[in-house]
Design brief:
The chain has helices at about 15-25, 25-30, 35-45, 55-65, 70-80, 90-120. It is mainly alpha-helical. Helix 4 (about 55-65) crosses helix 5. It is globular, with a radius of gyration of 15 Å. The model is unreliable at about 1-5 (pLDDT under 50).
Amino acid sequence: MIHDGNSGKTELTLLDFTRMCVKYDMIRRLEEEKVSYYELFDMLDSNHDGRLTDNEFQSRVHEITGQYYTIGQIKQMLSEVDEDADGQLDQYEFHDLMIALDDVVTHYYGKKREKANKQA
């Protein structure tokens, strides 16, 4: 279940973020609009410094989904993919995050389609 920042949940894991991406159909929408992960990074990087901060990520997630997560929750989730542990995501770390999400979402939709086909 996806929790927002007001629910009392103290952490936001990568799995929570993946579920949010599935819930809001974000990967499919990006594919339909033919937006590359690097273009998405540029859209999220509001000050265009080549680094995605927790504040930028928090703001954009809220704009896209309406969900609010605390900075602490965002930091927790980003720390799972922040390879150099500098508290920010560069384009390469973000790209790796999106590839991982794409794999999980593809697996999820594949299982969902498989189940629907068996029931049909």
